[in-house]
């Protein structure tokens, strides 16, 4: 083992030494080149022959890799690429006697290549900041001992021990300890989540305080963290139409401009020689113009900047808790004509909350609430949570309950004692209360859920519960007012109508079975496709699989890492924040603007310099700017997608 590590270190040392030598030779060539260039302007004295020898020496030092790759391309029948373009142009410059410009072609190409790679690598490092989520070791408890293992070996039911400042490596349930979790890497939410024994936590979050013992509910491979990293790494695999087009464009563009450059050099030469011009003089003039055409025609400004723009946009979105599974989906967002929303868990919070208390007797609202809370404190039912999570005011009413029992599917019974008063108390739905009090109640048509409180044979209060709207729902949908908005719901029409009215949706369908949702979505898709538009469906990722699959863009509210959401949608909003919906469109529109800016700028400058070069109105130095300078400016513009 030690011998193997020693060999690796020795090999790395040799590689670093070779890189240092190459860099030293490259910088020496640059110094020699500028010295020889200065002699052309008579800053220093040097003979023409010596100057040309320096240019030849610098040419091979600077351009050896370019020439080698061009030759290998020829051997592999890859005749047209950036290396072959630069090699042809530089050799042609030598032929017409411009040694300084021949070296400049390769020097500026290499310098531009270096700067381009630096910009791209810097962008990738910033974009891949989530790669910091990767952890070398996991601390688990086995046989009463703490051991360190590679994350990939973490299995379901393993007990993870996470110290303060460490990252959680697998989804699980806290079985010991309490603290706060920073989930910003997952959801973009900066406010820590307070957790304690029994709470569920997701991999990728950072434990900010305390020591947590977490029982893994999934292996590391199936964890939210690992899926998130794979999404980020593989997001660029789904190419957009723009990227596919520019790749195909470059495939045809490069041989065409190479052929045109030869035409610029040869056709005018043959024409002017036929009129009596000197062959060598005419050839040198038009070959120089052909070289200008060849240098400026290199398509790297578009080939590099367009994918980088998409990559930067996807990275920017991921840092905000929006996971877009490919640039093709981001581009499609520019053509969305309609959004279709599921109601429960998407526009609403997905859990019941107490909305209204109606007292039907002399009992006060506060007293009725306190009795209901006392009864429901013995239940784990979702309705019980709606009562226990409601804040109540201090009241002088004091009572006791005994013989509490829960009746499945109906409600809760108990004996109520207050001073000399002893009554049978019941809390439950309309059917249950009718059975206990022999009283018929009229349920609210608008309420999603109504619970009644009865004393002996009298109904004294009713509680209206609702699945509350998300706080940001109305504001978020208001930003989408220029698009067509639909809501599909399985709830009663009165409930769906109230939600739709509150958020500003005029097209809604209620009391739908899953197959009904699909049928309505097909009609919406058909209508939008006739207009040349796309349809985005927004659901909670749990029970909307058919609709998500059918839509053009499937957006899942990720519930901080729902497996179904991560696996089934094109776009996942990790923190369930509806404000991210208009943000997705903002990112898509900005990406498209940057793409078109780069395309118009790059092609406009290049075509302009080509035409000026053909008419002899520019020189090779301007052509070099048209290649390297335009590429760098396009890359700098592409980086704006990160902000």
SSE class: alpha+beta
Name the overall outline.
elongated
* Radius of gyration of CA atoms, rounded to a whole number: 35 Å
According to DSSP, the number of beta strands is: 22
Question: Can you characterise this structure?
Answer:
Helix 1 packs across helix 2, helix 2 (48-75) packs across helix 4 (99-127) and helix 9 packs parallel to helix 21. A hairpin with a 2-residue loop joins strand 16 (449-455) and strand 17. It is elongated, with a radius of gyration of 35 Å. It has a seven-stranded mixed sheet with strand order 10-22-21-20-11-18-19, with helices on both faces. The chain has a six-stranded antiparallel sheet with strand order 2-1-3-9-4-7, with no helix packed on it. Strands 12-17-16-15-14-13 form a six-stranded antiparallel sheet, with helices on both faces. The protein is an alpha+beta fold and 643 residues long.
